[in-house]
């Protein structure tokens, strides 16, 4: 798909990254990406094609999560699927939701590129969560060994809420989970400052 032709179909965009509705033809890549990055996910066994089909049906019907494809233009100016993200565990009564993010592992190996992808996606998800879903709080859970992600989350402006000690068992070892959050008023302040700078 050509960038110029498809921009109108995007849900939001920031820093040359675009969010689109997730499609069924994205599932095989997501399966491969998840299975190759299990150590950073809450996933303890490889996913099958059946698992992916079932998951896609579930997210299509579940109002407590919204999931998007992350797209960006390649050298031919065609939109390319490079990752997926969303807001999950949405609690509309208490107006909160959790960030979900996974990128193509080839891009994830480039720390600078990965950080840019993550920060751009975080901005778009906050924009969507606070301004479209009317959430009061958006939070993240990050395994303690992911220092680069924790640094990016705090650089973005998320508040350190605390640690869940020895919360996740990965590669025969328990790790803490680090919880961060951003409130609507903190987002609004950051968004206003950015708008003034533009």
Strand content: 25-35%
General form:
globular
Going by helix content, strand content and strand pairing, the class is alpha+beta
Return Rg in Å. 17 Å
Task: Please identify the top-level CATH class.
Answer: Alpha Beta
Share of helix among residues? Answer: 25-40%
CATH superfamily: Gcn5-related N-acetyltransferase (GNAT)
Elements, N to C (H/E): HEEHHEEEHHEHEEH
Number of strands: 8
**C-alpha termini separation:** 29 Å
Largest sheet: 8 strands, mixed
Order of strands across the main sheet: 1-2-3-4-5-6-8-7
How many structurally independent domains?
Answer: 1
List low-confidence stretches. Answer: 1-6
Total helices: the number is 7
CATH second-level architecture: 3-Layer(aba) Sandwich
What does this structure look like?
This protein has 198 residues and is an alpha+beta fold. The protein has one domain (3-197): Gcn5-related N-acetyltransferase (GNAT) (Aminopeptidase). Helix content is 38%, strand content 34%. The protein is built from 7 helices and 8 strands; from the N terminus they run H-E-E-H-H-E-E-E-H-H-E-H-E-E-H. It has helices at 3-6, 27-36, 49-61, 105-108, 111-131, 147-156, 184-197; strands spanning 12-14, 17-21, 66-73, 79-91, 96-103, 137-143, 159-170, 173-183. It has an 8-stranded mixed β-sheet with strand order 1-2-3-4-5-6-8-7, sandwiched between helices. A hairpin with a 5-residue loop joins strand 3 and strand 4. Helix 2 crosses helix 3 and helix 5 (111-131) packs across helix 6 (147-156).
């Amino acid at each position: 798909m050509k960038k110029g032709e498809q921009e109108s179909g995007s849900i939001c965009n920031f820093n040359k990254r675009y969010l689109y509705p997730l499609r069924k033809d994205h599932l095989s890549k997501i399966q491969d990406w998840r299975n190759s990055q299990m150590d950073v996910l809450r996933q303890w066994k490889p996913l099958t094609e059946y698992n992916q089909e079932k998951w896609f049906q579930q997210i299509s019907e579940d109002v407590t999560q919204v999931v998007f494809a992350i797209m960006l233009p390649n050298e031919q100016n065609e939109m390319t699927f490079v990752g997926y993200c969303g807001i999950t565990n949405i609690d509309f009564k208490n107006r909160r939701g959790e960030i979900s993010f996974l990128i193509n592992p080839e891009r994830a190996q480039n720390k600078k590129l990965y950080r840019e992808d993550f920060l751009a996606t975080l901005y778009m998800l906050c924009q969507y969560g606070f301004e479209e879903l009317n959430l009061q709080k958006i939070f993240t859970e990050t395994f303690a060994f992911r220092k680069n992600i924790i640094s990016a989350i705090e650089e973005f402006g998320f508040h350190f809420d605390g640690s869940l000690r020895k919360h996740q068992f990965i590669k025969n070892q328990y790790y803490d989970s680090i919880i961060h959050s951003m409130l609507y008023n903190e987002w609004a302040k950051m968004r206003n400052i950015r708008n003034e700078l533009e």
